[in-house]
Structures are given as C-alpha cells and as structure tokens.
Specification:
This protein has 276 residues and is of the alpha/beta class. It is 37% helix and 17% strand. α4 links the parallel β5 and β6.
Amino acid sequence: MDHQDLPLPVGQYAQLENGLTLHYLDVGEGPVVLWLHGSGPGASGFSNFKTNYPLFAEAGYRNIVLDLPGFGRSSKPEDAHYNLEFFVECLNQFLQATGIERCTLLGNSLGGAIALGQALAHPSTVERLVLMAPGGVEERETYFQMEGIVRMVEVYGQGPMGVEEMRQVMQLQLFDASQLDDELLKERAAVAVTQPANLFSTMMVPNMTERLGELTCPILGFWGNNDRFNPVEGVFKFLDKAPHARFLMLNRCGHWVQVEHTDLFNRTCIDFLQHG
C-alpha cells in the first residue's frame, strides 16, 4: 500500500539531515508539545493521540504529532537498525529541521523511551516530560516476557496483519477491550502492511534506570495497574531516582491511559503544562 492510500490525515513533512522524511501533524499555536507514539504494529501519531491533542490545541498549545521512522507516513528504511540511538538521532534532527529549540516531549511506551533518550542526550531541548508507561527502564528480556509483547511478536511473525489479527494484539493494550473501535483497527492494519520486516527485530532500547537521576526537567507520568506490556513497577524507578517526578497510577487501565481514561489524562496534562 502506498503512503498516499493510508486512512490517516496528511500533515507536513520534514527532511532530515540523514536523508529520511518524517511526517507530522502541526495543530494549534503556543508552547510546543511534541507527541511520540509507541511501537505496536501499525502505530502512528494520529491513531495513538487523536482524542488528546485537539484538547491541548484548544488549551493554547502547538501540537506536533509525529510519525516515528518506520511508522505512519514517515520513511521506513529497510536497512536501518531501529534502536534507541537511531530514534533519538532522528528526533533531534527533526527538531533542528523544524526550528523547534525547546518543547515538552510527551511519549507512550517506545515514545516514552525516546523522550527519555532525548532528555538525557540533549537536555536543553526538553522543557518537560509527560510519560505514559514509558519503555527504557527494564532489560529487553523482561519486556519480551510480558503477555502483550509475546502476543504482538507471535501475531506479527505470522505474516500480514488484517483487522482481526490487529484486534488480537490490541485487545491486550486495554483493560476494557470494548473500547477498541474498528476504525482504529483499520488505520493500524493499513500501516502495518507497509512496515519493514526488520523494524521489530532490530528494536533495541537500553535500560536507562541508573541515569534517571540526571533528568533535571519536571516529569509527569501515568501507568495503568493492568498494563500487560510494561511492568508497572517501573513507576517506582522514576519516583526513587528522578528528582522532579510525579506519577498517577490507575486501576482498570492497561497500556493506553490516553485512550482508556481520556478526560482524566487530558485534564491532568494540561494542568501540568499550565502550572508545573
């Protein structure tokens, strides 16, 4: 499927120094919030955050909703190593290409790990962090024992993912799977068939737990107690080590707090942005 045929809105494109092109939506005016989605098959900035960023725009923020390389409408190189260093390099080049000097990074899962990587490597670019069940605070083996990731790898390895295959994986993202709508599944299935085979096999994210104390910016985090992708114990690593961190833990919540508890998430984040 050609990128033009994807059932996703078309925004703008940034050409990076490394030759890749990243697609993003640019919505609203004001201080910049840059949205970083997770790594599930078929993910895109729009499908992850479509019920969130419009409210941030109404509250007076400029929202840059990025498709990471390998996802959405962005470049999907088949020879890249999709490790944390690669994603952070692309993010930093994206900030340079778009002239964004400083912003709030908001990331879910892999996106949270990339936000952490950027804040550690280029702290002057990050004003605040908003993290939803971020990766990067466990060893790879721990993640790959989680029920959701086991299912994701299993289904992805069986070949092209249609809507029903996507449902099998996505059901585990949520505490209440009835919140999954077919439109979201179609969006993700359409993107999944365009993704390179090496995307998940080369995805390496180091355990950054011991470096959390280096983070000087304020951090707001969320974690669902029913998360089947990232161990909820990660909350306490941030609270123990990062100097300016607060986390909201929710029950009846899986890996997608911004979808499962949309109003609470939006209100809490906007309050954090406005009042610190």
